[in-house]
User: Fold this.
Amino acid sequence: MKTQRYGERCCLAGVPQQMFFCRLRRKTWSRGIKSEKTGISERIASRNDSLIDGLCYIVMIFNWCCMKVYLDNCCYNRPFDNANDINVQNETAAKLFIQSLVRYGDILLVSSFVLYSEIMDNPSEYKRSSILRFVEDYAKEHVGHETTDYAQAIAAEIMQTGIKAADAAHVACAILANCDSFITTDKRLLKYKTDRIPLLNPVEFVQQWEVGK
Assistant:
């Protein structure tokens, strides 16, 4: 599935797939018109229209049913931390399990311009390339720079509780994407509570996943 970008209209509409497939449908119809000389353009357009309608429905149902998660930068870096700490070991194992859920399509991964900025600032080439490769390969939705004003407004509210700007920006992007869970290993950030989205560490998320499946 192609990564879906959340622009200004997408965030407000809440169903970006519909707009994407409407554009695709118009292109398909145009191709049908150009094929009129063959005498079967209407049938081609009709079949393509039905196919696009069905595909649009399938994608929307998938996104409605599939849990969406947002992992912040410290969560992605957890497998590279000190493996002698038992908490780090447990969180690393849980984070890798979450990655497997993403790979097999059990949950939907969301990325953001905030996340990409922090990944690119990682001084370690190995860590940077490893994390970036996974996010680029498996993130199905992306909160882009077009949402900066909306993200800043939400982040400003979060920062009033004492949360750092970068952390607040991550949470804001997850809220804009309507994520079901925000996953982090930042203990201070985990103390922040909101009814907009649950904040969980990787172990807590896996425990809830096991109970709910």
Notes: The two ends are 23 Å apart (CA to CA).
